[in-house]
Amino acid sequence: TQRGGLRWNARKAFLDPARRRPNLTVLTHAEVTGLTFDGSRVDGVTFVRRGVPHRVRAGAETVLAAGAIGTPKLLELSGIGPEAVLGRHGIAVRHHLPGVGENLQDHLQIRTVFRISGARTLNDLSATLAGRAGIALEYALRRSGPMAMAPSQLGIFTRSSGRHETANIEYHVQPLSLDAFGEPLHRHPALTVSVCNLRPTSRGACHIRSSDPADPPEIRPNYLSDPADREVAVESIRHARRLMAAEALRPFAPMETLPGPDLVSEAELSHAAGDISTTIFHPVSTARMGADPMAVVNAELAVHGVPGLSIADASVMPTIPSGNTHAPVTMIAEKAAALILARAA
């Protein structure tokens, strides 16, 4: 999201206008390490700031918003989660919630790449010092050009095949190519035609790997573990090939370089999908909403069986949305704010 050629985000839209409020304190360089309790009720958190441990008490309730990776970690470190996981790391069980850390879902992006001719891409523009200087100058003078745009310049919602009633895949087309994120752009003009399955059926998990808050959790996305997802992956690569073979693109002579035109069978394409795919950074559903035994929060975002604690982030989504996750998370935050005000009234 942009505004005036600058990146626009939730911090600028929601936090900055509220910074002067007397009831708001923002602490940077701080990491929450666990929840604190008064009996069975959560009454605050512990955190470390610049190496110094602290504790803060909640006046009314505690709201976790650490995301689909951080929230289950904090719950488990605090003794809330599957008994087997907690016991494995010597953490006393405060409340057995088997769904914590389970049901992890994410959008997997299959990165097909096509070399082209007759047009310039970011590969060309950034290949020389003069080109990079031109990009910087255009942004400085006009707030336009490559530095003012999102990486993906084209998005398409469509069906991977006729067996789907509604759009089940999303394209992110980028005027650039590279071997992997963080690597230099290629020296030849090319497009990255990425496709993701909007409604994956594979499920993963995210759990603590130790009782030390400094240790990152173990993330097991289990991408393409469900045969249905592998089938959509094969359809997606073939769909991308048909797209790039369209009459309108013939003047640019697209030549597939990834995964490669020699791969044609379902087995070959299914295997290739795993090799050329990457996360699109949409993890959700590790503390999902519901009323069944695997649910973690109820319809008011309150954690089942744990008074004084609620969650407001992507972890509460029952299933992954058919699109990007930022807007739905913003909606969850807005709803959480309304619920908090209602409970405090």
Structure, briefly:
With 345 residues, the chain is of the alpha+beta class. It is built from eight helices and 18 strands. The protein has helices spanning 10-15, 67-77, 83-88, 122-125, 129-142, 227-244, 266-275, 326-344, and strands at 2-3, 6-7, 30-38, 41-49, 52-57, 62-64, 80-81, 95-96, 102-104, 108-115, 154-158, 169-174, 190-197, 204-207, 218-220, 255-258, 277-279, 309-311.
Describe the structure.
This protein has 345 residues and is an alpha+beta fold. It has two domains: 2-104 and 283-344, FAD/NAD(P)-binding domain (3-Layer(bba) Sandwich), CATH 3.50.50; 108-203 and 221-279, Glucose Oxidase, domain 3, CATH 3.30.560.10. The chain is built from eight helices and 18 strands. The protein has helices at 10-15, 67-77, 83-88, 122-125, 129-142, 227-244, 266-275, 326-344, and strands at residues 2-3, 6-7, 30-38, 41-49, 52-57, 62-64, 80-81, 95-96, 102-104, 108-115, 154-158, 169-174, 190-197, 204-207, 218-220, 255-258, 277-279, 309-311. The strands form six sheets. Strands 10, 11, 12, 13, 16 and 17 form a six-stranded antiparallel beta sheet that branches. Strand 7, helix 3 (83-88) and strand 8 (95-96) form a beta-alpha-beta unit.
Question: Any descriptors?
Answer:
FAD/NAD(P)-binding domain, Glucose Oxidase, domain 3, 345 residues, alpha+beta, three-stranded antiparallel β-sheet, six-stranded antiparallel β-sheet
